[in-house]
Amino acid sequence: MEDTPIAHELHIYTWPDATLREIADLIHDSTEEARKPNIRMGFSIVYPDHRGRYIMRKAGWVYTNRRKSIEEDKTLAQIGFQPGDFLDIALLS
After folding, report:
1. Gyration radius of the chain over CA positions
2. Which of 72, 45, 48 has the alpha carbon at shortest distance from 57?
3. What pLDDT shows up at residue 23?
4. Model's pTM, two decimal places?
5. Could you tell me if 23 and 12 are in contact, meaning their C-beta atoms sit under 8 angstroms apart?
6. Cβ-count burial 53-85 (b if 16+ within 10 Å, e if not)
7. pLDDT tens sequence across 61-77
8. Which domain does 74 fall in, by range?
9. What whole-number distance in Å separates Cα of residue 81 and Cα of residue 87?
10. Are strands 86-92 and 40-48 parallel, antiparallel or unpaired?
11. Is residue 58 assigned to a domain?
């Protein structure tokens, strides 16, 4: 993997006890697109299966307007994120 992010890609380093809310706040502070009002972030885990194909599994939603979601307090460990996995985060308005 290259060190330089491509367009619309953000490299972050975090711990298994980081919550989806904490990651959403980091993205909000780091990218202009995430600062728009009423953005919701859809989190998915992307990981390879035993055949080498990539699988995407939904992990939860976080709202940037501070509307509480039931998933925002889940940690990466709780949603099954493992080293080598990717987070795919869709910014929706």
Report:
1. 13
2. 45
3. 96
4. 0.86
5. yes
6. eeeeeebbbbebeeeebebbebbbeebebeeeb
7. 999 887 888 999 999 99
8. 40-92
9. 8
10. antiparallel
11. yes
pLDDT attached to residue 16: 95
E strands present in 1-93: 40-48, 54-63, 86-92
The percent of residues in the chain predicted with pLDDT above 70, rounded, is 94
Per-residue pLDDT reduced to its tens digit, 26-43: 999 988 888 888 899 999
Q: What is d(CA 65, CA 68) in angstroms, rounded to the nearest whole number?
A: 9
Number of structural domains the chain divides into = 1
Please report where in the chains the tokens 């959403």 appear, as a residue: 24
pLDDT of residue 2: 57
**Torsion angle of C-alpha atoms 62, 25, 14, 87, degrees rounded to 10:** 40
**Per the domain annotation, does 57 fall within a domain?**
yes
